[in-house]
Specification:
Layout: E1 3-5, E2 24-25, E3 38-39, H1 55-59, E4 66-68
Antiparallel strand pairs: 1-4, 2-3
This protein binds iron/sulfur cluster (2 copies).
Length: 90
């Protein structure tokens, strides 16, 4: 799952242009139908080789909004990754 945007997202758009691999879509393109931003797990590389910590979480103004999900098989895993459900930035 890479990182997950949770329902405290306020659709502020701060994260979307920070993603180096365009893994984030806005609420209109969220495949779950939820009115929040969404990360495609099969695209997210947890910012490995791009940034020391996930750029989306660093840009997000909503405390604890972006959390770690299951690592996606075959995709890079961040050395800073914590257990599932833990905020990427406290
Ligand atoms: S962790 Fe990095 S690659 Fe993954 S969605 Fe956030 S900005 Fe994009
Ligand atoms: S920066 Fe945070 S609150 Fe803003 S759209 Fe992205 S996940 Fe949602």
């Amino acid at each position: 799952m890479a990182v997950i945007i949770t329902d405290t997202c306020i659709n502020c758009a701060a994260c979307i242009d920070e993603c180096p691999v365009e893994a984030i879509v806005d609420e209109d393109e969220n495949p779950t139908g939820e009115e929040i931003y969404y990360v495609y797990a099969d695209k997210c590389v947890e910012c490995v080789t791009y940034h020391d910590v996930p750029a989306c979480a660093e840009a997000c103004p909503t405390e604890g909004c972006i959390v770690w999900g299951d690592p996606t098989e075959g995709m890079p895993h961040s050395e800073t990754r914590q257990s599932n459900g833990t905020p990427v930035i406290d």
